[in-house]
Every structure is written in C-alpha cells, then in structure tokens.
Amino acid sequence: MDQQSDARLIEIPLQSLDCTECVARVLVRKSTWQQTSIQWTEEALEACRERPATRCGERPKDRFIGCESLRHEIREATNDGRLNVVYRTDSETEPDRPTVS
Q: How confident is the model at residue 29 (pLDDT cuts 50, 70, 90)?
C-alpha cells in the first residue's frame, strides 16, 4: 500500500522553531489557533532539558509527551507573527485566549 503525503504540508510546510531553554530545534505547523503539529527530530529529543524528567517519573523515555518551554515558545512565536497560523478567518485578529477567573 502506497503512503500518501499530506498535501497541506506541501502547500504550507512545517516551520523550524528553536526552544529558548535548550535550543532544541523542532518543526512546527499551526493549522489553527487551537491545533499545532510538532515534529521532533532525534537531535531535538536529545537536546530537550525537560525530556529526562520523564525518565524519573512513571512514563518511560519513549513516551515523552512534550516540553512546557517549547509550548511557551510556540505561543510567543504565534503571537508575535514568527509562526504563521494557516487557517484564519477574516475576523480573527488575535488568538483565542482562555479566560482566567
């Protein structure tokens, strides 16, 4: 069975983004304000400072669920325009932000 490539990634490819904490470089695509795709390279996984913490917890190393520092950098890059949001409506001028009570 032939594997089909995702045409969305051809039209608007992943963008390179560095984590400000450990300088792990990942590829990111913001499809919408709520949806983010992240592609971790082997080098980025080795560079991430938060990944070793999963070894001490209950999750094995191969079940790393993400980096809080990188999440923050993605939010900042999206807010300041370094990371494009692919599907926007004309009425969107800034990201949907959760309300804090």
A: very high
Is residue 28 a contact partner of residue 74, using CB atoms and an 8 Å limit? yes
User: Residue 1 has which token pair?
Assistant: 């069975």
Check whether 98 has a pLDDT greater than 50: no
CA distance 19 to 74: 8
User: How would you label 46-75 residue by residue, b for 16+ Cβ within 10 Å and e otherwise?
Assistant: ebbebbeebeeeeeeeeebeebebbeebbe
79: enclosing H helix or E strand:
helix 68-79
Which range, 7-11, 45-49, 81-85, 88-92, has the best average confidence (pLDDT)?
A: 81-85
Contact 38, 50 (CB under 8 A): no
